[in-house]
Amino acid sequence: MSKEFIQLTFSTAEPVMSEVLIALLSDIGYSGFEESDVALKAFIDKDHFNEAEVKRALAGLAVEYNCAEIEEQNWNAQWESSFDPIIIGNFAAIRAGFHSPVQQVSHEIIITPKMSFGTGHHATTHMMVEQMADIDFTGKTVIDFGTGTGVLAILAEKLGAGSVDAIDNDDWSIENSEENTAANGCRQVHVFKADQLPGNKTYQVILANINLNVIVDSLPSLARASARGTVVLLSGFLKEDESGLLQLIMSLNFKHLDTRQKGEWICMKLEMN
Q1: What's the CA dihedral at 246, 249, 250, 256 to 10 degrees?
Q2: pLDDT band for position 186 (50/70/90)?
Q3: How many CB atoms are located within 10 Å of the residue 145 CB?
Q4: Which of 12-26, 134-148, 153-167, 217-231 has the lowest mean pLDDT?
Q5: CA angle 15-219-269, nearest 5°?
Q6: pLDDT of residue 99
Q7: Are residues 148 and 116 in contact, defined by beta-carbon separation less than 8 angstroms?
Q8: Which helix (H) or strand (E) holds 109?
């Protein structure tokens, strides 16, 4: 039986507004986005749709949207065809199987782009990958918290990680990340469904590209899963969220090493003291 989704369509030609909408809707459970020059589409499982919650999230924004029910097979092919490769210098490329190989990079990741990978999150993925280039993963224990397609977990293994836990609470993401890790020949990535980090493990590298609400709620557990020297990369939120996050981060004994920005999105690099 086909899964049913709610599609919200916003008419907007403003890239900044699209980024703000994506951030706000991600905070209330929207995990799929499709952007064009004139519109933004946001998707959520029909069972999780709450229009009152949408109106609260978007209060104060001068935006209008149309709402429609759709079945996944009606839009998945279009979704895949709208996915453009992400190329991060000569370090890494993320592409779909129907794209031509990218020859000039050290690491190439091939994925099947489904709803767990919205085009709106290209900026955050780009920054996370960019930051990963500066981390020594050799033999390290890693967790990719909110793995989505599994891209960061796959790259961590390619960079030499000894063990990678890839977790998500979304069935679609688990299925997609398992498919992608297998397609990339991963042997050290362990994909499993979870709402939070395992309570009995610590990691040497933590990757979390999710959304503001989840990161704020999860920072105490991220701290408990960190040992001295653990490196943490966080993204999925906007520049305007940085100061509030930094206060919480410092209170949990993390050291702030770096913030990078792409459009309105930022990526923060931390280390546990």
Answers
A1: -70
A2: very high
A3: 26
A4: 12-26
A5: 60
A6: 86
A7: yes
A8: strand 107-111
Q: Is the pLDDT of residue 54 over 70?
A: yes
- Could you give the CA distance from residue 240 to residue 246 in angstroms, rounded to a whole number? 11
Q: Measure the CA–CA gap between 265 and 147, rounded to whole angstroms.
A: 18
Quote the CA–CA distance of 141 and 129 in Å, as a whole number.
Answer: 17
Residue 251: per-residue pLDDT = 97
Q: Which two tokens stand for residue 255?
A: 């050291």
Identify the structural domains of the chain with CATH numbers, from first to last: 4-80 (3.30.70.260), 122-272 (3.40.50.150)
Residue (of 158, 159, 165) closest to 141 by Cα position:
165
Structure tokens at 64: 């209008």
Q: With contact defined as beta carbons under 8 Å apart, do 32 and 118 qualify? A: yes
Say how far apart CA 113 and CA 95 lie, in whole Å: 9
CA atoms of 251 and 201, how far apart (whole Å): 21
| Secondary structure class of 93 (helix, strand, coil) | strand
